Amino acid sequence: MRGAIRHNRHGRRDALMLRLAFEHGLRVSELVGLRWSAVDLVHHELRVSRAKGSWDGTHPLQGDTVRALKRYQRDSGRASGLVFVSERGAPVSADGFRRMLHRLSQRVLGVTWHPHALRHACGVHLINQGVDLRTVQQYLGHANIQNTVAYTALTGRPFERLTF
């Protein structure tokens, strides 16, 4: 998807939105509502304000994500307010992000992804990496562990890592 997204005029912004949505399991409303005040580029942290009564949290930012955020901040000329805005400074809407993801996933993958699929992919990725369910629950901000347990059904080979 990286190659395809580079060819659109909002490529860097859109790539960064996809990266943050996946790496931090953000809901679309959390993503488009993200403010620069929640991004700590010095300590490499993202303060996630969860929607839907979920738990807020502070997530570590990876080095390449920090570099992408710094580059985007420099290019956009904005260090305050909403992170993701249009060329005219208007907020990127949840619908706008959905449309971008639908177009991109259809073109690259031949299927239409919805934004919540990135959140699910994050949870499944963490479980596949061997992260325990309680940590995944906290990372995704799930108030109820049952919401996290549902991701285990999508992981493929649940017993692969067991050793005796």
TrEMBL record:
Transmembrane segments: none annotated. Belongs to the 'phage' integrase family. GO terms for biological process: DNA integration; DNA recombination. Gene3D superfamilies: Intergrase catalytic core. Keywords: DNA integration, DNA recombination, Fimbrium biogenesis, Transcription, Transcription regulation. The keyword Nucleus does not apply. Pfam families: Phage_integrase. SUPFAM superfamilies: DNA breaking-rejoining enzymes. InterPro entries: DNA_brk_join_enz (IPR011010), Integrase-like_cat_sf (IPR013762), Integrase_catalytic (IPR002104), Tyrosine_recombinase_XerCD (IPR050090). This is Type 1 fimbriae regulatory protein FimB. GO terms for molecular function: DNA binding. It comes from the Bacteria. PROSITE patterns: TYR_RECOMBINASE. Residues 1-164 form the Tyr recombinase domain.
